[in-house]
Amino acid sequence: MTEDRVKELLSRLGGLKSAVQQVIVGQDEVIDQMIIGLLASGHVLLEGVPGLAKTLMIKSLSQALDFSFKRIQFTPDLMPSDILGTEILQEDETGNKYFKFSPGPVFTNMLLADEINRTPPKTQSALLELMQEYSVTYAGKRYDLPKPFFLLATQNPIEQSGTFPLPEAQVDRFLLYIKVGYPSAEEETKILELTTGSQSNEVPVVYKAEEIIELQKLCREVHIDSGLVAQVSQLVRSTRPDISGVGSVRQYVDWGAGPRAGQSLILAAKGHALLHGRYAVVPEDIDKMMLPTLRHRLILNFTAMSEKVSVVDIIAELKKSN
After folding, report:
1. Buried b vs exposed e over 3-27: b needs ≥16 C-beta within 10 Å?
2. For burial by CB atoms within 10 Å, which of 4, 158, 202, 204 has the most?
3. Where in the chain are all domains bearing CATH 1.10.8.80?
């Protein structure tokens, strides 16, 4: 990729965020982290109460990217074949019958798994292969997903009835875990003005799918110093209570982060650097991406829950010690 091509692709990243903000008020950090997840070729889990425009935010991003987009509303009766696809009996011109695979809604560039924790483990686990291998295996045959493929899942933190918490192995496959908060007073006023009138904003197309593939390759090429890699390794290892030198980790953490956490943090830091126009990772990139890459990879014990110690508290202490 030529230097001019790199500059041209990066020059539109700010426009990508602005395009989403044509429809979404506020949530700057959330939009940034979604774009970083895309650049780093990872998947994103968003958690927030109803009405915070999570679905609209994701759909707007897909429109700005000119991606094919599918939304699956996860429910307790959803089956794996409903999302992956199934074989249908067909008949050829000679009358011979055969089975043909009919792809499900996961065969798209951007997939929204809405309220992912509302479906049972059997259906949740159907996403594991496509999240890791970017393919679906059905009846012994592998079917590759379109490129690029980007999975964004949402869940509601306040409703527990009729939900099935995601298993740790699946949560670990999300590059980023983003908490979507309430808007500020000024932002909420603007939301009310924009959404109760006749004005409707269209999201302009900023990138084509093949250009996102170029950006994802470029993200992998962002330089990171060996000293920073060692720092990330030490940080991840310090989340494990049996070998950690951090007091709160030994006291409150049952299970620390695995090697995938380090990979995710480095890739997210590279995406953060690229989003800010840098071709090399600096300590600030690692610091900014530490919380969304680690918050879903630490399992706290009962003592932490009883003393109301959160993962955010633990990560804050990890930042100070590293």
Report:
1. eeebeebbeebeebbebbbebbbbb
2. 204
3. 223-322
Strands (E), 20-121: 44-47, 69-73, 85-91, 97-103, 110-114
Q: What SS3 class is residue 293?
A: helix
CATH of domain 223-322: 1.10.8.80
Q: Residue 148 in 3-state DSSP? A: coil
CATH 3.40.50.300 placement within the chain: 1-221
What's the residue count for the chain? 322
pTM of the full structure: 0.89
Rounded distance between C-alpha atoms, residue 128 and residue 299, angstroms? 20
Please, are residues 116 and 47 in contact by the beta-carbon 8 Å criterion?
A: no
What percent helix, strand, coil does the chain show, rounded to 5?
45, 15, 35
End-to-end alpha-carbon separation of the chain, Å? 36
Helices (H) and strands (E) in the chain, counts: 16, 11
Residue 212, exposed/middle/buried by CB under 10 A (0-12, 13-18, 19+)? buried
CA dihedral of 120, 126, 132, 135, whole degrees rounded to 10: -160
**How far apart, in whole angstroms, are the C-alpha atoms of residue 311 and residue 50?**
23
DSSP symbol at 191 = H
The pLDDT tens digits for 14-66 are 888 888 888 887 888 998 999 999 999 999 999 988 877 788 888 889 989 98
Tell me the pLDDT tens digit for each residue of 285-305. Answer: 999 999 999 999 999 999 988
